[in-house]
Every structure is written in C-alpha cells, then in structure tokens.
Design brief:
Length: 250
C-alpha cells in the first residue's frame, strides 16, 4: 500500500486534542490514553456552527499551534441522535465564512456529508463562492455500504463531481447502524476490507482512509458479532480486524 493511506492520523469530532477531550477520557475520569505525537496528528474538526468561534481562534493562533488540517462540519445533512443540528448548505457557508477567510496555514477539509453524492455539497459550493478548490482542497466522504462495487461507484461519482480535488474517506465501514441490515460476521468484515481497500487505493485520487470505529463499538448490542466494525476490544486489545487492517499498511 502507498505510504499515507490506510490508518493515517485520527479524526476527532472536536477542535480539542485527545488528551483535552472529556469524551475520550477513561471511565475513571483519568486522562485519555494519548501521546504528544497522537495529539499532533489528530485531525481536528469544527463540528457544527456552535464551534466556529473556537475553531477560528485555534487556526489563527501562533503558527506553531495551528493544526495541519481542520474538518468543516460533520454530517450537517444528518442529525445524529439529535446531538448535532441540521445545517443547510447556505447556513453552513455563512457560518464558515470567517474561517474560510482567515489568515492561517491550516488546510481545510470540506463538510463531511452523510450522503456523499447528494446535492448538499454542490449547493454549499454555490453559496460559499466556489470555496471548494480555493480555500478547501480536500473533499470528505462518509461511506457505509456492504457492496465493494457500490463503494467504488460512489467514489467514482464523487470524483466526477469534484475532479480537481483530493478525496479523504473520513468514515468507512460496511454499516453504521443495525437498521441497514448488514449480516456480516467478523471474517466477512475482514474480507470486505481486504477486497475493497486495494481497489480504493488503485483509483489514485483517494489520499486518506479512516476506518470507523477504532474503539470497541459493536453495532448490535444483542449480537455483538454481527457486522462489528471495531478495531479494538473492550479492554483495548486488537481485534482480528485491526490486525488485518494493520497488515495492509505494510
């Protein structure tokens, strides 16, 4: 596999580092299991309009403290369990204007929509003054699909829409919810990964692939072995899926 693909960095759903984020902390309330290198390589994110001011302060701080990358809004077209607000393309463009106009070394990643080939991102492009290709040079995609052929088709369509931009798949797995009907066992998930990821790499325009989830997070509490995307077990040890994933990085 090409260097820089596969398990590359960590997307955090926050503009704070891992060690500063309560949601990453251990149940005991102690600090998160992190290192300075992990904090540096984490991809930070302006989750939604509520975090624009904090993110603007971060990317305009002293140059040495500016993050390499900043993701701009996570699934603005989908409210996950009501935790995040739905944001129209027009409202997103307005909210992000100060960030896009900032004097910063930070590179911006497009809003990562839940439905990769909907018209949300093209409407955002019209509303933000064609910022994708100017201030934004990376298009994010979230893809959950049990068919490798359909995943490739989604990526080809995305590339056709944004032919000059690099693509990062910031969430990838066969499924994100039991309601999607994935019936894979553990070996099926490994086979899916081993079939699909080389095909993605061979496309030549996808620079980063981020598996979801790194932490132990079975999709189905009543049947933890059903379509389980977890790279680690509850005790932090590696699953067979992580071992397969890591082997593909060599």
């Amino acid at each position: 596999m090409a260097k820089g693909l596969m398990v590359s960095f960590l997307v955090g759903f926050t503009d704070k580092s891992i060690s500063q984020t309560a949601t990453y902390n251990l149940p005991s309330g102690g600090p998160a299991a992190s290192t300075p290198d992990m904090d540096t390589e984490q991809i930070q994110m302006c989750m939604d309009p509520r975090y624009v001011n904090d993110s603007l302060s971060m990317i305009t701080s002293a140059c040495a403290a500016q993050p390499h990358y900043l993701g701009l809004f996570n699934e603005p077209d989908f409210s996950y369990m009501g935790y995040t607000p739905l944001t129209s393309p027009q409202d997103a463009a307005t909210a992000l204007q100060s960030i896009l106009e900032a004097d910063t070394t930070t590179q911006f990643i497009s809003p990562a929509v839940a439905y990769s080939n909907s018209d949300w991102l093209t409407q955002f492009q019209a509303a933000c003054g064609n910022c994708i290709g100017k201030q934004i040079n990376i298009v994010a995609a979230h893809i959950y699909n049990t068919s490798p052929d359909e995943v490739i088709s989604i990526l080809q369509q995305l590339h056709s829409t944004w032919p000059g931009q690099r693509i990062w798949i910031t969430e990838l797995a066969p499924s994100s919810d039991p309601s999607q009907g994935c019936t894979f066992n553990d070996q099926d998930v490994i086979n899916w990964m081993q079939t699909l990821i080389p095909q993605i790499v061979n496309l030549g325009y996808v620079d980063r692939i981020f598996w979801n989830h790194g932490e132990s997070n079975p999709l189905n509490a009543n049947n933890p072995g059903l379509c389980n995307p977890s790279l680690t077990n509850g005790d932090g040890s590696a699953t067979a899926l992580l071992q397969a994933y890591g082997a593909m990085c060599n």
